[in-house]
Design goal:
Elements (H helix, E strand, L loop, with lengths): L15 E3 L16 H21 L6 E5 L16 H16 L8 E6 L5 H13 L10 E5 L10 H15 L2 E6 L24 H17 L3 E4 L39
Parallel strand pairs: 1-2, 2-3, 3-4, 4-5, 5-6
Helix pairs in contact: 1-2, 3-4, 4-5
């Protein structure tokens, strides 16, 4: 969830496309099982998806060619025991975007999870860029997921440090590609990070959480935005967490007041 903004350093971009086949952990049925042909298939798939948007005059501002791919993509060839293959696949996907008929080429994003963990981000990007095929020019934005309920170390302070280090080390724009906050969370599986416990688990707390994350992104050199995931998935309100409702839309479809936070950040 995002919006465009000209009043802040941070842009909240709404026209974002995830090339979903890129983020599958296993190769789709019927796709090639060798890296050369798989990379070629991925290039053509990405090109076709982008051209379909171009043909329908749908503008795209960001295309994510990897969604939470810390463990790799398109297994088994794209597992992290072979960063060359990961780099090859991402390079091909990037080329598909750049060769498309989209009149204004979108920014290209790679998206990892655990954005608060600088060690993970550094290891992954250093490994994939050292492998060879993936060039720094193949992508523009380093996106991260940042959730407060999976690890007590996922502090706002650690997120701030991680984003700063990512921007400085790799000279890339950074974005929080996924985050959310619970309306209620009576029995979380993990303790919430120490510097987040002042935020209530409530609709008001959702607004406060987005504001705090937005401040961190805005204070980061090359910080460009955040997205709320997923504001209205009413049949899956827990969104995979142990907190049973993280939505900005109630079960009956009523929009919660927290959604208006995007008018003020």
């Amino acid at each position: 969830m995002g919006r465009s903004s000209t009043s802040s350093k941070v842009s909240y971009l709404s026209r974002r496309l995830d090339i979903h086949t890129d983020c599958l952990k296993t190769v789709p049925s019927g796709w090639p099982s060798d890296i050369d042909n798989l990379a070629w298939k991925l290039y053509n798939h990405t090109l076709e998806v982008c051209n379909s948007f171009a043909s329908n005059s749908v503008p795209i501002e960001i295309i994510s060619i990897g969604n939470e791919i810390t463990a790799g993509l398109l297994w088994p060839l794209g597992k992290t025991n072979n960063f060359y293959n990961i780099a090859r696949l991402l390079h091909s996907a990037s080329a598909g975007v750049k060769d498309s008929r989209l009149s204004t080429k979108p920014k290209i994003m790679i998206h990892l999870d655990n954005g608060w963990n600088w060690d993970t981000q550094k290891w992954w990007y250093q490994s994939v860029l050292a492998a060879g095929p993936l060039l720094s020019s193949d992508f523009d934005i380093m996106g991260v997921s940042y959730y407060p309920f999976y690890n007590a170390q996922a502090t706002l302070g650690n997120l701030r440090y991680s984003l700063q280090q990512m921007s400085q080390t790799f000279n890339k724009q950074v974005a929080v590609a996924e985050t959310n906050w619970p309306v209620t969370c009576d029995g979380p599986a993990h303790p919430f990070p120490s510097d987040t416990t002042w935020i209530p688990k409530s609709v008001q707390g959702q607004s406060q959480w987005v504001q705090e994350v937005a401040k961190i992104v805005a204070a980061t050199n090359r910080g460009v935005g955040l997205f709320y995931w997923e504001p209205a998935w009413t049949r899956n309100a827990g969104l995979g967490s142990s907190c049973w409702d993280n939505l900005m839309v109630a079960w009956g479809g009523q929009v919660r007041s927290s959604l208006s936070v995007f008018n003020s950040i």
